[in-house]
Each structure stands twice: as structure tokens, then as C-alpha cells.
Write a structure and sequence with these properties.
It is a peripheral membrane protein. By secondary structure, the chain is α+β, with helices and mostly antiparallel strands. The chain has eight helices and nine strands.
């Protein structure tokens, strides 16, 4: 469990330098400077946006904050994907900071709008789905409502120890109650994410690898596989730590 803590802590501490800029075609007369911030890879853009919008509303006349959506190159950024997923999936060069464009017009249909507690509900639902695969939802169903709230609050406020206090329960496994399946999401550009149903070990008791997960959904190419900003090999073991995996073509 100590190793689990250290690995998860390193993943949690990952930060992405982002500069938010206004779309030049929409804001022709505006020369506002970029808003720069270090964003946790585990966070979500809707959690960062209030600070960004506050900045631009102070320097831009008649700024329509309610209509804002984000774009990188030609791709709209999905609100419900973790920032780190979007970065790994779409950022194909090594240039930093990551320049994200704010737009207010022609919002694409694939950009979901979150109101109130929608994002929290989406996150908790993902946790429940993961535990259904791991433990048939035994752990998450035994948790109190306050523990669900603490899990989301830890993401909202970037509090790792609060997160770990709950997350370690979701990672536990024993001989009497082993992990049944590995919860993993595989993302590709311009496709919905996929969740292969894969056991931790094969019939020969060999530990599964990233290659097994990719082959389960018929990905046979040698495209780079990226997780938390790092290119990982197809033979990577213990990929339970990798909360997402992105294949770039």
C-alpha cells in the first residue's frame, strides 16, 4: 500500500502549464494578455474556468461568459474529460505552455454543458463504474454519502490526502476478495473512449499488460501509448495505476 500511495501521489502532483487566450477572430479589437495557470492533470476545465473568466471579464467589454467553450487547434475540449487526458490525447508537440483558446460563438454539439452538481455526479458515476468492475460495487456501495462528497471535494480543492483516504479503499484487494477486472479507459482522437473488460491475470496466471488491454478492443497498431504525460510501453504491468491511457495516431 505504501508503493500505491507513492505512485498515486506522483500522478496526482502532475501539473500542466496552460495559457488561455481569446479567439483572435472573435475578439479582433482586444489585446488582452493570456491568463496563465498550472493546472492539475487530475482536474477538469470547468473547475479552472471561474478564475479564467473572472480575468477576461475584467478586461473585455461585454464578455459572454455563459457561452464560453474551449478549443485547441481545431478540436473542442470536452468538459467531462480530465485535463490530463485532453493534454495527452491532443498535444502532439513538446511546446509549453499549452495554449487553449476561449471562444463564445458557434459552440459545437459535442461540448457538454455542466450546471450545478452535474460534473460531480459524472465523476462519482465513473467511480461507481470502476468499482463495479473491480469489486462488483461492493466497496463504493458500502461508502457513506460524506465519503463520496470527500472524494469529489478532494478533486475540487486539490487535496491529495483527502483523496487518498477514500481512494485507498477502492484499490484494496486480497486473496479472499481479489480484483475481478481492471478499470481502464482508452482514449483515441475523434472517438469515444473504450473500456475493455479485462482481468488482472490471464488463464496462465500471467499479469496482464497494456498490450492485452489494447488487443481486447482490436487496437493492433504501434501508435504511441501515453498516460499522465509519459509514453509507456505495450508491455507495461501494474497499469491499474494508470487511470487513463491515450493512443495518438
Amino acid at each position: 500500500m505504501i508503493q500505491d500511495y507513492e505512485v498515486t501521489r506522483k500522478l496526482w502532483d502532475g501539473r500542466i502549464p496552460v495559457q488561455f487566450v481569446l479567439d483572435k477572430l472573435e475578439f479582433i479589437q482586444c489585446s488582452a494578455k493570456p491568463f496563465c495557470v498550472m493546472v492539475p492533470g487530475m482536474s477538469y476545465f470547468p473547475l479552472i474556468l471561474p478564475r479564467v473568466l473572472q480575468y477576461f471579464m475584467a478586461v473585455v467589454d461585454h464578455f459572454d461568459a455563459d457561452s464560453v467553450w474551449l478549443r485547441y487547434n481545431t478540436k473542442p475540449l470536452k468538459w467531462h474529460y480530465p485535463v490530463g487526458v485532453l493534454f495527452d490525447l491532443l498535444k502532439t508537440d513538446g511546446l509549453l505552455p499549452w495554449t487553449v483558446v476561449l471562444k463564445t460563438k458557434d459552440s459545437p454539439k459535442e461540448v457538454m454543458r455542466f450546471r450545478g452538481n452535474d460534473l460531480e455526479s459524472s465523476y462519482i458515476q465513473s467511480v461507481k463504474e470502476a468499482d463495479q468492475l473491480k469489486h462488483k460495487a461492493r466497496v463504493v456501495n458500502s461508502m457513506k454519502v460524506d465519503e463520496h462528497r470527500q472524494l469529489w471535494s478532494s478533486i475540487l480543492n486539490d487535496k491529495f490526502d483527502e483523496f487518498w483516504a477514500i481512494n485507498k479503499k477502492l484499490m484494496e484487494a486480497s486473496e479472499s476478495e481479489p480484483m475481478l477486472h481492471v478499470p481502464i479507459r482508452i482514449y483515441q482522437v475523434d472517438r469515444s473512449f473504450q473500456q475493455p473488460l479485462i482481468t488482472p491475470f490471464d488463464e496462465s496466471d500471467r499479469a496482464r499488460t497494456i498490450a492485452d488491454a489494447l488487443k481486447a478492443i482490436n487496437i493492433e497498431t504501434q501508435s504511441p501509448v501515453i498516460s499522465h504525460g509519459k509514453v509507456i510501453t505495450w508491455q507495461t504491468l501494474r497499469f491499474v495505476y494508470f487511470m487513463w491511457t491515450c493512443g495518438q495516431s
